[in-house]
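Notes continue from the previous slide.

Worked example: a multi-chain complex. Inputs as given:
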Amino acid sequence: MAAVDLSTHPGHLARRLQQAHYLLWNVMVSEEITSPQFAVLNTLVAEPGLDQRTVGERVGLDRSTMSEVITRLGRRGLLDKVRDPQDGRRFLLRLTEDGVRTHRRLTVRTARMNQVFLAPLSEGEQSQFFELIRRVADAAEELRSPAEPLRQDPDRLGAAPAPDVARHGGDPVTS
Amino acid sequence: MAAVDLSTHPGHLARRLQQAHYLLWNVMVSEEITSPQFAVLNTLVAEPGLDQRTVGERVGLDRSTMSEVITRLGRRGLLDKVRDPQDGRRFLLRLTEDGVRTHRRLTVRTARMNQVFLAPLSEGEQSQFFELIRRVADAAEELRSPAEPLRQDPDRLGAAPAPDVARHGGDPVTS
DNA sequence: AGCAATTAATCAGGGCACTGAGTATTTCAG
DNA sequence: CTGAAATACTCAGTGCCCTGATTAATTGCT
């Protein structure tokens, strides 16, 4: 009776989307290298010698997960990790030959997979798809890290913001 | 040089979207009950007495994860798990009073959170958002499980039902 | 009836994701 | 210059997510 329709819950959809992607990735791209691992390789192809924290920032992995992922990639011999002589807290990351080769190989497959994954959408819809998800994700990230301090009360996380939202009478997820 | 733009990779976007949702959920909904757990509660409000497998099917959780989630919810006293007297392999699931109360409380907060989460999109864009994600996720799921034969046509059980895929010529991320 | 699939659930194991605590190193303030 | 604060990384603990193997119960086939 009081149950809601999960198909109108963005979190539920996001989870299903990611699961679907995970499965297709395993089939079409690699069973060894995961999508987050590929993101790390990709970042280091563009900018060799970054430290872990910065790579994590680029691809959206937190410090702990980053640590694990780097360990795995290092274990597979895809990257080297050396202490920064300038700053002994940092580790600088650089792909090995094998890492570069692996990235190149997976890039091709990833492109193919993306086509299959997005095949149900027209070209225009694909752009919309990217755009909408990006906007929602970016906005939610802003909520956490105020980024540019826009000079607002820092204490409104627990409260109910969004005074503009509740306009449409029949809200979609009410009991 | 050969690096790709991750913002055109649906998998990367899906991951970022889910992470953003996870964080907001923790702040605005609950630190105890997760979004997948809520999905299970929600299903059992609508259909008490389902077995684990069916609930997992409804919310998109595989048998293993389902087992863990059920254990946690049971440990918190939110649901009861009893063996099906008709079929001793199954466990039938039913919310406790506390489970129902928890679901009701979280339903309100979840609705608020969804509004905040989707606030960057207009009403029309929100519909698009749901629609596009749903279509992609559904299609990807079809790729794995050939769905159910709507007739009893006996000669297409093992056949591959999806001859579509590579259609539009101008691929955005070609090898 | 009796034995071979099939099915529901669990377990083992690998990986992603977060928080909070701990370690080492650098920076900064007095 | 020296002790406090900040920073980079690691570790412990929890939870989600998948596959493949295992266990227990049911169904199906002869």
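Summary box: The helical segments of chain A are 10-28, 35-46, 52-59, 63-75, 97-118, 123-144. Residues 34, 36-37, 61-62, 64-65, 68-69, 72, 87-90 of chain A lie near DNA strand C (CB under 10 Å from a C1').
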